Every structure is written in structure tokens, then in C-alpha cells.
Amino acid sequence: MKLIFTYSFLLLFALVSFTQQNDHIKEGNWSAKLLLNQKDELPFKLIIKKIKKDYQFIICNASEKITLSKPEKKGDSLIISFPTFNSKIVFKKNSKTQLNGYWVNYNKSENYKIPFQAIYNYKNRFTNYSNDLTTSKIDGKWKVIFNPNTNDASPAIGIFSQNNQSIAGTFLTETGDYRYLEGNQYGSKFYLSCFDGSHAFLLVANYENDSLKGRFLSGKHFEGKWEGSKNDTFQLADPDELTKVKKEAVFQFSLKDLNGNEFHFPNEQFKNKVTIIQIMGTWCPNCMDETRYYKQLYEKYHSQGLEIISVGYEVGNSFEDYANKIKLLKERFNLDFTFLVGGNANKGLASSQFSMLNEVISFPTSIYIGKDGVVKRVHTGFNGPGTGEYYTEYVEKTNLLIESLLKEK
Question: Are 277 and 366 in contact, with CB atoms under 8 Å apart?
């Protein structure tokens, strides 16, 4: 009996030791990728650290670093969630240097899944694409057209910085930016990607005669063409001129708060206050960049009379779905704004609810109202911190506007 007990204990100890070893994941820089389709892979850098007993997963896009949630174990899989967006990576460990699974984006649907792979060791974001290590002059400002020669053609500004084969940058459009893009150039081939839990962008192009022509993929659901040419003077339409208040229209609306209570604007709470109305969605990366900035703005100027009302247009099937997503945003960002539920993520719906505007053409759209109740500015879209000096200029301009409105009697 004693011999059987000793054997059983040794067997159990061996199994526990094996499990602990099998749970080990190598720390350091990993090359990860999403398999968008049979031929296109979206690569990104993944850093894995061990802090005490827990692993920490960090996704890198150029200067942006996104720390995911503490891994949750479910069966033989690990689940890591994005801090801002309703999406997760579910994976298994093939070995201590190889992971396999999928990314699921619940803002699309529960079935919106893209295969995920990662292997230990990281050199370049895009590797083994060419033996040609010559470089062209990519850095600078570019005039870009997405979906050229179609009814959906839209202008953009490409801004890139280059260090040998490495490229970082973004695209500014009239409704927002493409956030932090990173990639490489090999000979005449140009590659950029971004993965932040909402965006899954892949851009490839050929460089020839100071021009770029290529493909743009967003997740597994969209592919289009794009082209660019060097242009230091190209400008987009002024974001303060795209959306306007209709002549002689009164700015007022009625919606529900997060608890389903009727909310009417204007009202006594906002009388003699400077108020920003933010039309946004928690699924929208540009909206989240704008929300981070508004949090800073609110903390700086609220005591002087600034109020912010965020109206959420969400993915879901009911008021409760929409409200719960907005509540989660409020908790994650620790926000004290007033939050309202607009409804489904639909620009037509937003346009009908804010019928005093000519049209809501972008999430986000922000309306700035003075103490006298008059609209002073309507800003369409948001170009965030990934755009560098464009973002800095916007912040300076907006801060000055708020300060001047607060001084008015």
C-alpha cells in the first residue's frame, strides 16, 4: 500500500511539473500575424513579459503600445482582451515559442474571427519579402486617393518617416486618421500595417517614379485600391467647414440617458455653460482618441464651466446593448461626462436626431456651444496623436477656443 501511494504521488508530481513547464511562454519580442485570407498576412510586434506569476501581452504599432488584459484561462486556451475595444485574442500554446488561435471582434459579430499566429523572435515587421535592400525616398508628405476612379474615391494625406528599410506614419482623411502604421520598404515594395483591436489595416504598394500604387485591406471584409504621389502642399478640406448648422435652426434635441430617462437639451444644468456635444461610438478608434483628449480637457476646464455630452451610436440589438457598451467605456476611462444613448451605429440616424445640422458625415463629430447657447464650431472627424504636428495644432486651437468661450459673459 505504501509503495502504491509513493508511486501515485510521484506520478502526480511529474504531471504537475509537466503542466507548469508546459505553461511556460518565452519572454521577449515576438513576430505575430493575422491571416486575413489565403495570401495576405498582417504582421505586428508582440511583446510578452512575465510579471510575478502572470504574463503581460503588449501589441506595438510604431510608437503606440497597447497592454492587453491579464490572460484568462478557459480550457486549454488563453484569452487576452483589448483595453478599449470589445475584442479578444484566443490562443493555445503549441510550444514555448509558438502560439496559434484567432482574433474575434465582437463589434462586428461573435463570428468575426481571423486566424492568429505568433512565433518567438522579432526582426522586422515585414520580413523575407525581398532580398533587395535598396531604399527609395518614402519619407515626407503624400497626396493619396483611396478607391481612385470610382464613386467612392476619397482624398487623404500620407505622412511617413523612414529609417533605412523601416517606415512609420499614418493617413489623414476628412473623417479621421489611420492611427499608428508601421512597416518596411524593400526595393520597390512598400508595406504598412496596424492592429489595435479595432483596426486591422494592411497596405501594400509598388513605388515607381515618385508614386505609390497598391492595395488596402481592412480585416477580412474589405479590399480596395489606393495611389499616392509626393506633394508637400496638398491640403484636405477644413474639418470645421464640412458640417454646418442649418440657417436659423435652433440647436436642441431629446435623447435618453444610460438609465433610459428622457434628456432634453438645452436645460437648466447646462445654462450659461460652455458645452461640447460629442457624437461618437465606442467601436470607433478615432472617437476613442478624441475621448482621451476630452477627458484631459474636462479635467482642466470643468471647474471653470466646461461640460461635455457624449452621445453613443453603438453596435447591438437593443437599448440595453447600446447603454452597456457606453457604461463600459465610462468605467474604463473613468469619465464624468454626461452620456446619452443615440442608438444604432448609423450616420443616417445621427443626422435625423441632430436635424439642425446639414448632415452627420463622420463618427466622431463635435459641436461646440457657447454660454449664450449659440453653436461656435462644428468639427468633423478626428486626427489623433498618430498624426504628430496635426494633432498638436488641433489641441492648441481647441484649448484656445474653450478658454475664450469660458471668458465670455
Answer: yes
Instruction: Count the alpha carbons within 13 Å of 150 in the hemisphere toward its beta carbon.
Output: 12
Render pLDDT for 117-176 as a digit per residue (tens, 0 to 9): 999 999 899 986 666 666 677 889 999 999 999 999 999 999 999 998 899 999 999 999
The closest of 72, 116, 122, 62 to 94, measured between CA atoms, is 116
Instruction: CATH number of the domain at 173, please.
Output: 2.40.128.120
Do 193 and 211 meet the contact criterion of CB atoms below 8 Å apart?
no
Smallest CA-to-CA distance from 182 within 157, 160, 210 is with: 160
Whether residues 280 and 376 share a domain: the answer is: yes
Q: How many helices (H) and strands (E) does the chain have?
A: 5, 25
* Residue pair 215/64 in contact by the 8 Å Cβ criterion: no
Intra-chain end-to-end CA distance of the chain, in Å? 91
Reported as a single tens digit per residue, the pLDDT across 12-40 is: 433 333 334 446 899 999 999 999 999 99
272 lies in the same domain as 347: yes
Q: Is residue 369 a contact partner of residue 309, using CB atoms and an 8 Å limit? A: no
- Considering the domain architecture, whether residues 270 and 376 belong to the same structural domain is answered as yes
Contacts of 364 by beta carbon, 8 Å cutoff, 6+ apart: 176, 278, 279, 280, 284, 286, 287, 290, 381, 382
- Measure the CA–CA gap between 19 and 8, rounded to whole angstroms: 16
State which residues form the domain around 325.
253-407
